[in-house]
């Protein structure tokens, strides 16, 4: 197999992109001159918000390119905002905890090129905005997360100084960032290491992926869901340890066990239908959006051969098969198929937004027991073309790779397939290498 990925950042009139998740290729590159909107969701946190606004006044980012949007989640009294920076306050009705909706409301009122999300109880150090916005300023589909540290800021009345007592930094995040080299080695589970209290991205990318999911109406989960959706849209993920903000109080792990357990269970139940990562779906329940979206083209098939091909795909777990082409309807009618995993036509937007893998089948291909696992191992980020006898072919790709290639193809001056090769790599293998064959699967069904 041949890896054709570039080892350089790709600069275009629309901005810069990188192969894979190689944000390190832009280390030392000066940030583009952009405007930044700091979006702060708020609910009855006046003393903490006052500290946040004072800290934003001390940022080393140009003041004429910085604004603050305070998104009030229905506080009984509106927030007081005394600040040397331009501040806009937007409010929504109090219908319970709606941080996701508040952030969307703030983003809608923002005028900056880059959105920097910062919780109202999380106070940034002076270099926070500059550090966190650097990568999204140049890479339009970058998603960065800062370093959230913890202290009793209410007691201190200021940011910590050397010698002040500090609260523990979440060990699970510290270990995750160290183990992934600050998310340079990000994978399908790295969404769990993006937290909205210290998150940043371009406004255009935020709008493209649809912002926060407002169905989240309890503490936690909305940032993981957005980060997972962003990753599948081709986001470049990066942890920026130099972007430090101090949370007033302990991490969630330092709170009472009963509250934490109930909240985490609720969060898991909210995430499972939306995140196709198998580790988020460990209970054997099937959800509307599958992990794998397969398209089987009916050209060259009989109803019997389609049954063999489609059936061999369906055995591979969390998958939906779309049968496309002139023979699709007759196939379903001939075999009396009443299976929600088999659909006619092409995948809808919900699946392409949330599924991890895309499989396209042309001709009479049969997937063996190990086929999907082997295809995924060949190139988790890019595309694999498996050529078979009699003109059959199987293409296996991640939606992450396809969607970023689609976004950048025009700017790179190439078609989508060429963009995919430049950004993630493409590989060709034979059927034996990935457990895909042609021919009848069972003796009682002929081609």
Question: How would you portray this structure in words?
Answer:
The protein has 447 residues and is of the alpha/beta class. It is built from 14 helices and 19 strands. The protein has helices at 46-57, 99-109, 128-138, 153-156, 171-179, 203-209, 222-232, 257-271, 303-314, 328-335, 349-354, 371-378, 399-412, 416-423; strands spanning 10-12, 15-17, 36-42, 66-72, 87-91, 114-118, 122-124, 142-151, 198-202, 236-248, 292-297, 319-324, 342-344, 357-362, 365-367, 383-387, 393-398, 426-430, 436-438. The protein has an 8-stranded mixed beta sheet, with helices on both faces. Strands 13-12-11-14-17-16-18 form a 7-stranded mixed beta sheet. The protein has a two-stranded antiparallel ribbon with strand order 1-2. α9 crosses α10 and α13 packs across α14. The chain is elongated, with a radius of gyration of 24 Å. Residues 1-5 and 441-447 have low confidence and may be disordered.
Strand order of the largest sheet: 5-4-3-6-9-8-10-7
- Assign the structural class, choosing from mainly alpha, mainly beta, alpha/beta, alpha+beta, or little secondary structure: alpha/beta
Beta-strand percentage?
15-25%
The count of DSSP E runs of length 2 or more, i.e. the number of strands, is 19
Number of helices: 14
Tell me roughly what share of residues is in helical segments: 25-40%
Uncertain regions: pLDDT < 50 for 5+ in a row?
Answer: 1-5, 441-447
Rg, Å, rounded: 24 Å
User: What global shape is seen?
Assistant: elongated
Distance between the termini: 31 Å
Largest sheet: 8 strands, mixed
Mean pLDDT: 90
